[in-house]
Structure formats: C-alpha cells, structure tokens
Amino acid sequence: MIVTLLTSVLIISAIAASLAAVLAVAEAFLRNYGPCKITINDEKEITIDGGASLLSSLIEQKIFIPSACGGRGTCGLCKLKVLEGAGPLLPTEEPYLDEKERADNVRLSCQVKVRNDLKIKIPEELFAIREYTARCAEIKDLTYDIKLFRFELIDPAEIKYTPGKYVQLLTPVYEKSSEEVYRAYSVASDPAKKNIIDLIIRLVPGGICTTYCFEYLKVGDEIRMNGPYGEFRLTDTDAEMVWVAGGSGMAPFVSILHEMRNSNIQRKTTYYFGANKAEELFLTEQIKQFEKDLPNFKFVPVVSDHGTGSNWNGETGLVTQAVERNVKNAGDCEGYLCGSPGMIDAAIEVLKKLGMDEKKIYYDKFA
Amino acid sequence: MKKSPDTNKLEEILKSPAFSATGFMGADTRNLAEIIDADMAEVARLGYTPHQIAERMQQITDKAKSALGNWIKIDDTHSAMITEVKGRIPCPWPHAGNFAKRVTTLKDMQTGRQIHFSDLNIHLVAEHNFFEGRGSPFRIDPKEIVEMLF
C-alpha cells in the first residue's frame, strides 16, 4: 500500500516537473520576439532583442529617459511619443496621460513592451544625457535628516548643465534592495565647476535610495548617475522673482544662485525658505554671501516652530504664509518653487491668489 | 490550507519588486493568510478593528499634510510630519487605485519614539487587513501602532 502511494506521488511529481520544464522552455521561446528595430525621430535606428520594456531597451542603448520609479509605472516621468507599434494603451498608463497626450500617442516607456518594430519620437536634448561614474568626495550633515553629498566625476570627467536640472542617482543592489534603482535629485552645485555634482538629499523613511545614501554610502565609494534632466530653469526675462522652497528643495536654488553670480544676473529676487526650527535652517552662511554678492537678492528664512524662549526674530509660520504676508506685486513677478508636492500645490494657490499668472509659476516637484 | 491560483499570484506580486523595490513581505516566511490572520488576532486582542486603526492613521496624515513638511502637534503627546516624493504607487491587490508616495512620521513627544506609515499602508490596513510582512520597511506592528494611535 505504502509502496503504491509513494510510487503514485513520485509519478505525479515527475509529471508536474516535466510540465514545468516544458512551460519554462515554451516561455523562453514565446517571449523571444527576435530582433526589433526602433526608429527614433525618423533619423536614428537601433536594433534590440525584443521582450523588454521600451525604457530599459533605450537605457541599454545609452539613451536615457527620465524615470524616478525604476520603471514601475508610478512616477509618470518616462513619457515619449510612440508613433507606431506600441499596441493599445494599458490601464497602468491611463492615470498619467491626459486627453491631448493620448491623442498625440504619448506613452509611458516603462509600460510599453518592445515586441515588434517601433517608431518613437523623443526630445533632442535627451540625446545629450550621459551616464557618469563618480566618486563620493564629501558627505556633510545639514540637518538631522538632510545631507549634502559631493561627487567628483570620473568618466566622463565633466558635465555641462543649466542650473535647475536634476540627475538620476543609481542605488546599487544592497542589503535592503535586491535590484538597482534610480532616483532623481536636483543638482545643487556651481555649474562652472564641471567635475563636481552636489546633491542635497532628505532621508525618506523606508526610502531605498535615501537609506543607501545615508547609511551605506561612504566617502571614496564609486557611484553611477545619469543626466542632466528637467526643464526647471531661469527664464530669460528681467521679471522680479519669488522663490519658494523647503527642505531639500534648496538644491536647485543654490545652483541657480551660483549661475546668477557667475553671469552677473541682477534680477530682483526674494527667496522664501521654510524650515521647522531655526536650527534646521542650513547653508545660511553661503546664502548670506550670495546676498552680499547679489544686491537685488534677498533671503527670507521662515520658521514654523519658533518655540517659547526662542530668540528667533525672523518670519514665522508656514513658508506660504510668509509669502502671503510679504509679496505685494505678484502680478509682475515670476514664481519658482521646489519642494514636496504638497508644499508646491499650496504655494501655487497662494501665488495665484496674490495675482500671479499660473503660466509664470515654474516648479520642480522633486523633494 | 490549499491556496487558490489568485492568492499564489498575489503572494508572488507582494514578494516581488514589481510595485515597491523591497516588496511587501520582507523576510517573513509565513504566507499571506498566516500574516493577516496573526495580525488580525493581535488587533482583536488589543480591542480595535483595522478600520479604526486606518481611520486614525488617515486623520493624522490629513492633519500633518497641512504643515507642508513641518512637524505639527496632533494632540498633547504626539506630533507628526509628512515626507513626500514624486509619483504614485498602486495597490498590489487586483483593483484600481493608486496612492501618493507620502510617508507620515508620528512621534511621541515625551519618549521620542517614532513610527512611519504611508498612504498605501492606510489603504492596505483598511481594505485588505494587511500590515505587511516582518522585515518589510513599511511593516506596521499592530501593537506598536495601537499604542501610538490611541
């Protein structure tokens, strides 16, 4: 009886194992779409092995498309036009595409699988994006949860960018992440120093990349990043500017201030920067130096928790409240915002209420 | 107990980095039903329901959102702060819905003890009674959160 039972179990197990093997082999062959041609902007043609996402296929060819979520379809950044061959729009793409984008064949490249030849259109500036290896040269505590990371570029040894851009930092596989992940951070360095990239990073509880940077990355370690990306930059007008930022949103404004000093840009600018406590304000000496060097630039730190007995005598409350109290001529100004999505949404509402044209409000929602 | 193909598929998704780079199961060797059953038993032992827990978490997140990234007093002993990053994360269960990548940090001002939970955590607790597996970065221990929330 027992022998019969064991024999039956063995036979069933062998059949199941054989079926699994057949399925694995079939999957390997069925998912092999063979070589697929991607035509880019009617000019460039690349041939890749089909089966992977369009985003990862392009990255393999060193064509970098912005993406802040590692291709999970959760950031909506990797949009590009797929003119032919993409197949129907997927439910995972729908929340990120408006009617006009859908009509224009815009797709999330991380969700489009390359199964056949494709025709795509991507902005020319993305061809200028490079991958860099760099060495961590300095890690500096700015607050209890914000650090400045300085990277010296190794290969290529120099980067050219307009201030306001961001780079994507690659988090390698480490104890807390079984796969490589890219995250986007605004550049905080002087664009004239072409072999340096400074990033100001705030620790995100449970965040893969920020945990790596805060707990694992050491001075001397080599990292990879790609960039520069983004459209956040100073306009070419002479309009007065209102800047609003909080936390690591400081980063692009430091880079822009370097550029203003380097190029002697004397636009009237008021920079409202929000912090929880006075002791959580950072880079204040550097910003004060910019105030001396740029006579039309004014820094207004805003502290929300000034506490009893504090000797803080500057602006208090939320950064948006300070803007509301102080900005009198918003209709003539341009607004520049960087910080958390919540802060940016609140700042947009305040600036609109003060009379600023929404088209003149520029922002980067990367925290 | 034998698991349905749908449960198997869901468990694979929860273990994989498909939605979150670290997955939702952490290093937990228990299956999904065992994790949920154990946490539900603990929640019941503590005298609460997942819905009550999620509702309180949501109230705290809503209040903290108004502080735009600064700490805000929730009650006499607790303060909270929001950290946000760009993007949204879908629920790994097979239904529509995605959530802001927003983490609420709740701090006991007397002891300094802190817990973190995301908008997705609130949904997972309310709708799926799932507190995540042990070792997951966003695992919420029922006892710990009940002590902090109520």
What features would you describe in this structure?
The complex is a heterodimer of chains A (367) and B (150). With 367 residues, chain A is of the alpha/beta class. Chain A contains eight helices and 17 strands. Chain A has helices spanning 2-30, 54-60, 99-103, 208-216, 250-262, 284-293, 319-326, 341-353, and strands at residues 35-40, 44-49, 79-84, 106-108, 118-121, 130-141, 146-155, 166-171, 181-186, 196-202, 222-229, 240-246, 269-275, 297-303, 315-316, 333-338, 361-364. In chain A, helix 7 (319-326) runs parallel beside helix 8 (341-353). Chain A is globular. The model of chain A has no long low-confidence stretch (mean pLDDT 89). Chain B is of the alpha+beta class and 150 residues long. Helices cover 40% and strands 21% of the residues of chain B. Chain B contains five helices and four strands, in the order αααββββαα. Chain B has helices spanning 5-15, 32-46, 50-65, 119-128, 142-149, and strands at 72-73, 78-90, 98-108, 114-118. In chain B, a hairpin with a 7-residue loop joins strand 2 and strand 3. In chain B, helix 3 packs antiparallel against helix 4 (119-128).
Assess the beta-strand content of chain B as a share of residues.
15-25%
Helix content of chain A: 25-40%
Number of strands of chain B: 4
Strand order of the largest sheet of chain B: 1-2-3-4
**Rg calc of chain A:** 25 Å
Trace the largest sheet of chain A across and list its strands.
9-8-11-6-7-10
Helicity of chain B, as a percent range: 40-55%
Tell me the number of helical segments of chain A per DSSP (H or I, 4 or more residues long). 8
List the helices and strands of chain A in order. Answer: HEEHEHEEEEEEEHEEHEHEEHEHE
What would you report as the Rg of chain B, rounded to the nearest angstrom?
A: 15 Å
- Helical segment count of chain B: 5
Q: Count every beta strand of chain A, where a strand is a DSSP E run of 2 or more residues.
A: 17
